[in-house]
Amino acid sequence: GPGLSEVVAPPPGMATRLCFSVEYRHSSEQLAVSLLRLGNLLPPFHANVTMVQLRLLPDDRRPRQAKARTTGPDPEFNDSFVFQVSGAQVSRSTLSVCVLSVSHDGKRHAVGQVLFPLQGELGQAGRVLWRDLDTEKHHHYSELGDVLVSLSYNPTLQRLSVEVPKARGMQPLMDAGVWMRASLQIHTQVIKIKSSGVVKADGEPAFEFRTSFKLRVEHMDESCLRLEVWRQTDHLPSEPSVPLGVVVLGPFMYARGPQLQHWMDMVNTPLQPVKLWHGLCTTN
């Protein structure tokens, strides 16, 4: 018979897209998700194994994983997943699909993500959906600039390791340097603060900031990491530093979207550094 790729042709355009379907069965309170295929995967990923992690937010802790059966630009999955979720809860839920590319050395590269709020989407059961992946390549997340953040967690040592190699898309500042501040918070209490050195404030400051925090496993769900970019002026030492932007990474209590996804991926792949760009927000 014809392959999936002939049955399910993607819409025109070059975006990397996910093909899937969702169906809610009220009688058994089950959400069935069928993962069909990806379209237009970028060339660097063609030879890799494509992995997908599915979660039903806000409640899902452990992701369901699927591995593509084929490689190339349009990897096929043909996997089905069932989530047990009440009728009241399902319309308040969001299906999160995170696509990873695993290279031959075992390194995981984030390809992109689809966040699909289920409200209003369950009427036409089983229809085939195409959604563009939100990838980190084609836009800056923020007018203030983005920071590249790598997170990993070691449960044995109870250690959270943080790296911020660089930023991009920032306003260059004359006569001023910039520096990073990382703080670990549990509930509303700041537990520890670490700071980087001052670097040149061009559009792409190279922070090369590495630090780690002691963080007990039982605090993972109630703690967050706050990263701030601060301005340092040489000629006015009396002037206080002005925070230029902030990003908060953490569980559902603190974060949504890519910031929540990044934290969950770190928790679910212990010892593996997970690297993503994040847009800076204003500090108020």
The biggest sheet amounts to:
5 strands, antiparallel
SSE order in H/E notation?
HEEEEEHEEEEEEEEEEEEHE
User: Poorly predicted ranges (pLDDT <50, ≥5 residues)?
Assistant: none
Q: Categorize the overall geometry.
A: globular
Radius of gyration: 21 Å
- Reported by name, the CATH topology of the largest domain is Immunoglobulin-like
Strand segment tally: 18
Query: How many angstroms separate the termini?
Result: 58 Å
Mean pLDDT: 87
- Counted up, domains total 2
Classified in CATH, the superfamily of the largest domain is C2 domain
Short structural description:
Pfam families: C2. This protein has helices at 4-7, 87-90, 257-268, and strands at 17-25, 30-39, 49-57, 64-67, 76-84, 94-102, 108-117, 129-132, 146-154, 159-164, 167-168, 176-186, 189-195, 199-200, 209-214, 223-233, 243-249, 274-279.
How do the strands and helices of this protein lay out in sequence?
Elements: H1 4-7, E1 17-25, E2 30-39, E3 49-57, E4 64-67, E5 76-84, H2 87-90, E6 94-102, E7 108-117, E8 129-132, E9 146-154, E10 159-164, E11 167-168, E12 176-186, E13 189-195, E14 199-200, E15 209-214, E16 223-233, E17 243-249, H3 257-268, E18 274-279
Antiparallel strand pairs: 1-2, 1-8, 2-5, 3-4, 3-6, 6-7, 9-10, 9-11, 9-18, 10-15, 12-13, 12-14, 12-16, 16-17
